[in-house]
Amino acid sequence: MSEYGVERRRVFGIGGALGMLAAGGLTASTVLARRPAVTGAELRSAVPLPVPYRTPLPVPTVLRPVDTAGGVDRYRVTQRAARVPILPGVDTPMWTYEGAFPGPTIESRRGRPVTVTYRNELPVPTVVHLHGGRTPAESDGYPTDLVLPRGWRDPMDGMRHPAGMAGMADPRAVVTRSTRTHTFPLDQRPTLLWYHDHRMDFTAPAIWRGLAGMHVVRDDAEDALGLPAGPRELPLMITDRAFAADGGLAYPALDPTLRERPGVPERYLAGVLGDVILVNGAPWPVHEVDAARYRLRILNASNARHYELEAVTDDGRRLDLVQVGADQGLLAAPVAQRRLPIAPAERYDVVVDFAAVPVGSRVRLRNRLGTGRTREVLAFRVARKAADRSRIPRVLSRDLPTWHRGDAVRVRDFAFRAGRMDSGHGWLIGGLPFDPARSDVTARLGDVEVWRLIADVHHPVHLHLVGFRVLSRGGRRPLPTDVGLKDTIALRPGESAEIITRFDGYRGRYLFHCHNAEHEDMGMMANLDIV
Ligand SMILES: [Cu+2]
Questions:
Q1: Structural domain ending residue among the three candidates 385, 418, 451
Q2: 130-189 pLDDT per residue, tens
Q3: How far is the CA of 288 from the centre of ligand 1 (A)?
Q4: Residues around ligand 1, an ion, CB closer than 5 A
Q5: Domain Plastocyanin-like: where (predicted)?
């Protein structure tokens, strides 16, 4: 096959890129490659930390629409500073959606449009992206489509690239003042999405301060499956944070006002990790459950921390985590997992059965990648026997895309690695730092493409607009947890992977980027123009 020859050359091309990495002697990549489990530097809290598994698990409130006329659910969300009780007896000043962390959850039905009017009452520009949403470009939250706060003088402020690249304004940016309304058609597979700030150069500290919330899309077919529901379905947003002596959040921003100079000191180049694990904004919480099946909708909303989750009983048994869904919705069939590696922005939809767990005992969700307290995440205390009419059907969905290599009209290669930007250390895609004004990828609407990705250190790579399937990892079969339709793939140090997708939905300017939030602020994004 003539195609085979092309593939071989591309494989050698990637090998060449890796060879350069090894020889390049870049501080970050070489240091981190030697310590592959490290995805950042950990901040130490300056307050006494709570004892794990005493704080009840909060479940974020579901936001009520202000209007549902004409088949559209309309919401209003205000971004504002608030004092949020996170640690026992302490209020933590945060930047929030509606005064809460996580922000309120939006529940929506497939194909029923949602509009959200965001009001910015924070002291800095903001922009909201719905992660995993199949959203028209003008509502996707491009990093320069800023909502300026009242009184923000220079509309160009906050649109400049890090020092030394000043003046790199974006002629295509659509900037508004005070408010902006996003329209989300939500014509997509039901799944757990999340919304978060995506401001150019300042995404990492903005999410850290609290600008993140969940969004669930449902449909009748999924409802009819009989999976655990109601109080037995739990959205779980996992984040790590660190706290200063006054109970405020610690974060090593070069400019703590987040107005001008982006970035973090070099020590935190690989990412910022906290020493406190929060689930739905509570430190190491505990949740009382029936001895029955529960559906856990797990999101890793941490900036840089990876987890490998397992469910362990008090007597040391590991419970199956029966995966029913991935980033972009239901699998074709359930897959029993023992461990769930979860990188920033990834989601898993799993069912865990507490029926055989003795009443009064616990099941802990633990993190195999943590050390000390960061090994602990969440505990379930089995409170009582209970009836359970839920089920896990053998067939979960029949609408997963079945793209084949032969469908692809193009193969593209992207190296995600450390490098130099004008401002110093950066993280680059294909050797380049993000420039909103540059065209990186132009794809035709409807085209199927194969992308080959290669990483120096851990990089969770995320495509806006489309889901993809993982074809291979390291030249071999994908991991058992790569199953289903994804929108974020966790590349491991030195690893290559192939993904396949169809650029479907809308034309316009989108993004692909690393979802280690510190990496994305330090250059690791690129434009994806769909024409
Ligand atoms: Cu990265």
A1: 385
A2: 999 999 999 999 999 999 999 887 655 545 444 333 345 788 999 999 999 999 999 999
A3: 36
A4: 459, 514, 516, 519
A5: 84-143, 428-528
